[in-house]
Description:
Order of helices and strands: HHHEEEEEHEEEEEEEEEEEEEEEEEEH
Number of strands: 23
Low-confidence stretches: 1-14, 191-200, 217-221, 269-279
Mean pLDDT: 75
Distance between the termini: 52 Å
Largest sheet: 7 strands, antiparallel
Strand content: 25-35%
CATH architecture of the largest domain: Sandwich
Number of helices: 5
Number of domains: 2
Helix content: 10-25%
Radius of gyration: 24 Å
CATH class of the largest domain: Mainly Beta
CATH topology of the largest domain: Jelly Rolls
Amino acid sequence: MIGLGIFVSWASGASEASQLASAFTTRVVADGGTVESKACLTTDLTYLTNNPVAPDFTGLLNDYSGAAAAYSLRLLDNTYSGNAVRVRRASDNAEQDIGFANNELDTTSLETFCSGTDGFVTTWYDQSGNAVNAANATAAGQPKIVSSGSTITENSKPTIKWVGLNDALTGITSVSISNGLTAIAVNASNSVNTSSADGAILQYNQNIGNHIALGYRNGGYFTRLYKNGVNDLNGYDFASTSLNLVFDYIDYTNVSNEIYVNNVSGSDVNSGRSSTSFVSSLNIGNRIGSNQSPKAAISEMIFYESDQTSNRSGIQTNINTHYSIF
């Protein structure tokens, strides 16, 4: 057997380790598991020990598939080859798609593009594979991602900040709640309990009489289910503006929800009213048509058209490992 040390000269870094490991396996199998040169073997094993082959990346959507829409500033699926966001810079209104580097938002490219000025998100790309992108073509309503050349962060991770009352990302038209809606959000708010109206992180339906709002109602509630002009359900009262991980399953038919904030079960109010049809439309960061925003920072939002409570623990662990929320 020829030792693998001869391969060191034509590769480098993790790629070299991967090539060595592959060549090592091939040669040992070919030789029936025997080793002819212990000196070369020692050299190769020492190298591979000091330069381990990185494991394949597995995203949240690889482990928990079937999302109807998924928005994040980190890579959620190892098969997704698109970008994270499209950004407009304030200096000349030029736009550019920003992708990922090492499975996170490519902040180097982002800050190079913005070059000392502010940057605003025109499109937040859907990573679910359903192409349900959230966008806003109006400059005055685009949320901010770069401030004076620096990426905005929460818990040291990039985030998008809704800074104006009319900021919103809209145009989501293909998420159904007929079988229940699981909404997962990584967010922080700058104005909890200060608005007398719906400052929604997300609102479902353009009909004010029938809608689901996930955000900050006048009492600080996260979930609000409104039917036939009557408020049927409020769930969880926020007391902090820090980064939160919210897992919310809304049972549309039974007018109830199961909500966890930072892995703690929240309150629930259920009046048991009969169901009403909803228009399929979602609005991120604002109450539709009302210019009422909580001025939230949102890093990630994922939606399933089904009950994902059996996967809650695993989903929360994946998210919390990345964002260090609780």
